[in-house]
């Protein structure tokens, strides 16, 4: 603004026709340099500086808001991750203990499967029977009187037969209550004995 | 006068100011420079929270990669006794006040404790210190229980993570695996002996968090990187291991025996496929088993093996060229040797005209001692050492026994003869299996292997270092001995108990008197069997040992032997033997 006012330091121009009572004053004035004349007003710079500073402040604020809300997101995701790891652990532990040989054998035997101590092989290439076949007896199971290979993880795990029986009882009870209400519901069929084979053992049709 | 006073006042004030400023300067320097680092540390300590990054202890897996021991995260449930008061629970219907008694019932329902026990923990902690802020309710609960406890929303109930160990298969191979204590330190078995491979390194980190407990981004400093442990791979097959344990346990119980072991070893590799002991510890519940039964008796319990050693004496004689399967001997029921030693057979009989094969088939002590005497005590001792007796196996199991094999110079007149039929020396079940492995493997005894190796987290396996194999007897001597043992199965009393149609089996039984601990023999026996299957090309050694059966005597172990052999043949798809057993004369 000083540059703008500087130019106004000129004395008013006097008409040459005016009689000269006093000697003519020297006609000097301050002339702006070329750079000064081309320079932009200083207000402009102030505005730019201020707005940049303001912009930086706002950007920083926004960034920090973003980072902190990111922190909450990270924290939330980490908590979720922790929970999922726990679920995974819980489920894989269930799977591992159900896959333990004690449990599989006890269930197999509860379903009526037995162990044959006389191995025999059928060679598919020529249909030859290797070994001397001998039928397994009904009591040939290994578990018999109960598993003797303890596993404290299996304490509250019921056998499939017990679960099926419970389910059957529940189904029958439900059916009975519905029948009492007047609806006719067919009695659910629950396999109790060995499943009969149709068309013999399944096998490959080609040699 | 006036000006003087003023000047003095000025001087005093100036001095005071200088002194105070100097004092402040000293303090400033002290705080900012001298004690700066200590204060910085303290302030950081107040702002930052240290945390442990738990590393995972390596798994123990069987030969097929089935997990036998796994690391799990468990939780210690803790309580703040001074804050154990009523609290308000917000439910859908209304806010309910829960008393500590009610809360204790809820906690107890999950942890299996009685409410009184929980309240007693609180009372005890408060009695010791009225401002007590910490006490354990229960240690090591699993995830499911931990979640259920969390869901209760009890404000004075806390938890801390505590890495634990789970054995999904229970006591399957529990005798071998050992166990890890509550503190996460290995205490027994492979867990202990292979701890260097299994153990991980816990990491440490510090972070800062806001008032709401959220971690401040970029504030985490990891000072120690956590490192997971490597896994141990065993040579054991968990299914076979289970089968042998079950069959053995059933028979030990049925015969009223004290204990029993079953060993299955691969002949061509020396790898142990199953080592069953009964009783066996369930590593999930170590307290449920007596301390003496928490290890593996097959490795740790030496016993006088008895007649199973006769096969080794015969192999030594064949190897030394001092006998052949048809070597003849007259075997009465008892005999007195010139040095005064007396030897007799198990049951009364007349004079039998036996070949060496017949001596094994009849299991004649009198026969084997007469034939074996031609081999010097020193030579016999050397053979027994090479068969692996008197030294631990390459497994190096925790507290493994060397058995007892006195140097031949220390043998007295009776021991000089007794060692030929397996008395006067003690062996472990593993040592017997290893000696028979040599017979099945053309006379070469391979180092016994239980641990396949250490598997790094990136999957690379570092195999267990093994000593060199030993040629104990010649191929011919070993094979001939197997043929002789086969004649025992086809012609001896055991035939109907262990024969499996279609397969050739070589086996020897032993019914050994046991030391009473005072230099005499007690009236209890250890019955054992050692077998090689299939005899035409031995692939597997099976040994069964049952200690002090109350009933059945020698008949106690053969049913187990047969069941295990059949299972091994099925499991490994062993083809039935193409031709019959060689027929060696047993009498002359």
Short characterization:
The complex is a heterodimer of chains A (207) and B (588). Chain A is mostly helical. Chain A is built from 5 helices and 2 strands, in the order ααααββα.
Notes on the protein architecture:
The complex is a heterodimer of chains A (207) and B (588). Chain A is an all-alpha fold and 207 residues long. Chain A has a domain of 70 residues. Chain A has five helices and two strands; from the N terminus they run H-H-H-H-E-E-H. In chain A, a hairpin with a 6-residue loop joins strand 1 and strand 2. The longest helix of chain A has 57 residues. In chain B, a hairpin with a 5-residue loop joins strand 14 and strand 15. Chain B has two domains: 159 residues, Penicillin-binding protein 2a (Domain 2), CATH 3.90.1310.10; 334 residues, 3-Layer(aba) Sandwich (Beta-lactamase), CATH 3.40.710. In chain B, the strands form seven sheets. In chain B, strands 2, 3, 6, 7, 10, 18 and 19 form a seven-stranded mixed sheet that branches. The longest helix of chain B has 33 residues. The termini of chain B are far apart.
List keywords for this structure.
heterodimer, A: 207 residues, mainly alpha, two-stranded antiparallel sheet, 5 helices, 47% helix, 2% strand, rod-shaped, disordered N terminus, B: 588 residues, alpha+beta, Penicillin-binding protein 2a (Domain 2), Beta-lactamase, 2 domains, 5-stranded antiparallel β-sheet, 19 helices, 23 strands, 35% helix, 22% strand, elongated
């Amino acid at each position: 603004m000083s540059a703008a006012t500087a130019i106004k330091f000129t004395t008013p121009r006097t008409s040459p026709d005016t009689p000269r009572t006093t000697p003519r004053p020297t006609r000097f004035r301050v002339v702006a340099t070329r750079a000064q004349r081309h320079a932009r007003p200083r207000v402009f710079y102030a505005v730019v500086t201020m707005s940049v500073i303001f912009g930086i402040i706002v950007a920083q604020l926004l960034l920090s808001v973003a980072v902190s809300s990111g922190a909450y997101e990270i924290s939330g995701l980490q908590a979720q991750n922790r929970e999922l790891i726990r679920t995974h652990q819980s489920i894989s532990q269930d799977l591992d203990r159900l896959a333990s040989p004690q449990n599989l054998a006890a269930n197999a035997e509860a379903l009526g499967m037995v162990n044959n101590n006389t191995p025999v092989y059928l060679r598919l290439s020529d249909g030859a029977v290797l070994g001397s076949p001998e039928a397994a007896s009904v009591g040939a199971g290994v578990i018999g009187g109960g598993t003797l290979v303890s596993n404290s993880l299996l304490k509250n795990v019921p056998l499939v037969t017990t679960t099926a029986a419970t389910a059957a009882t529940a189904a029958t009870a439900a059916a009975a209550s519905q029948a009492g209400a007047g609806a006719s519901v067919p009695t659910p069929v629950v396999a109790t004995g060995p499943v009969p084979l149709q068309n013999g053992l399944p096998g490959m049709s080609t040699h | 006068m006036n000006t003087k006073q003023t000047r003095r006042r000025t001087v005093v004030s100036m001095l005071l100011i200088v002194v105070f400023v100097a004092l402040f300067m000293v303090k400033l320097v002290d705080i900012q420079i001298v004690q700066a680092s200590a204060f910085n540390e303290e302030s950081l300590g107040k702002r930052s929270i240290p945390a442990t990054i738990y590393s995972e202890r390596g798994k123990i897996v069987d030969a097929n990669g089935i997990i036998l021991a796994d690391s799990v995260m468990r939780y210690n449930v803790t309580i703040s006794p001074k804050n154990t008061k009523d609290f308000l629970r917000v439910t859908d219907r209304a806010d309910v006040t829960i008393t500590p008694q009610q809360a204790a019932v809820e906690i107890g329902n999950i942890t299996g404790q009685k409410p009184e026990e929980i309240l007693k923990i609180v009372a005890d902690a408060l009695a010791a210190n009225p401002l007590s802020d910490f006490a354990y309710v229960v240690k090591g609960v699993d995830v499911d229980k931990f979640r259920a406890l969390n869901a209760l929303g009890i404000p004075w109930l806390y938890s801390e993570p505590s890495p634990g160990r789970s054995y999904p298969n229970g006591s399957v191979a529990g005798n071998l695996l050992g166990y890890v204590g509550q503190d996460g330190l290995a205490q027994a078995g492979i867990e202990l002996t292979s701890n260097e491979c299994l153990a991980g390194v816990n990491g440490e980190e510090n972070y800062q968090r806001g008032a709401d407990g959220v971690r401040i981004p970029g504030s985490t400093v990891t000072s120690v990187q956590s490192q997971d442990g490597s896994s141990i791979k065993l040579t054991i097959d968990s299914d076979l291991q289970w089968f042998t344990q079950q069959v053995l346990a059933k028979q030990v119980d049925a015969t009223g025996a004290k204990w029993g072991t079953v060993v299955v070893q691969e002949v061509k590799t020396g790898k142990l496929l199953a080592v069953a002991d009964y009783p066996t510890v369930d590593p999930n519940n170590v307290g449920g088993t007596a301390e003496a039964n928490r290890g593996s008796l097959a490795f740790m319990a030496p016993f006088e093996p008895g007649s199973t050693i006769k096969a080794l004496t015969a192999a030594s004689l064949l190897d030394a060229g001092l006998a052949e399967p048809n070597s003849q001997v007259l075997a009465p029921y008892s005999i007195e040797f010139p040095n005064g030693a007396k030897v007799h057979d198990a049951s009364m009989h007349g004079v039998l005209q036996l070949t060496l094969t017949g001596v094994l088939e009849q299991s004649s002590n009198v026969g084997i001692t007469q034939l074996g005497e031609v081999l010097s005590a020193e030579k016999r001792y050397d053979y027994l050492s090479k068969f692996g007796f008197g030294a631990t196996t390459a497994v190096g199991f925790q507290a493994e026994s060397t058995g007892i094999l006195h140097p031949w110079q220390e043998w007295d007149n009776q021991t000089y003869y007794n060692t030929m039929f397996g008395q006067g020396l003690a062996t472990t079940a593993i040592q017997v299996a290893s000696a028979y492995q040599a017979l099945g493997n053309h006379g070469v005894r391979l180092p016994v292997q239980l641990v396949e190796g250490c598997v790094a987290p990136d999957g690379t396996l570092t195999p267990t270092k093994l000593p060199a194999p030993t040629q104990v007897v010649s191929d011919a001597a070993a094979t001939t001995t197997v043929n002789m043992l086969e004649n025992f199965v086809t012609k001896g009393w055991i035939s109907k108990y262990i024969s499996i149609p279609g397969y050739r089996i070589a086996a020897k039984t032993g019914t050994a008197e046991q030391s009473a601990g005072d230099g005499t023999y007690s009236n209890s026996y250890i019955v054992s069997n050692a077998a090689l299957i299939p005899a035409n090309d031995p692939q597997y050694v099976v040994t069964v040992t049952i200690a002090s059966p109350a009933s059945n005597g020698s008949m106690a172990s053969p049913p187990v032997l047969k069941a295990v052999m059949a299972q091994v043949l099925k499991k490994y798809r062993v083809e039935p033997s193409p031709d019959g057993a060689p027929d060696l004369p047993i009498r002359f």
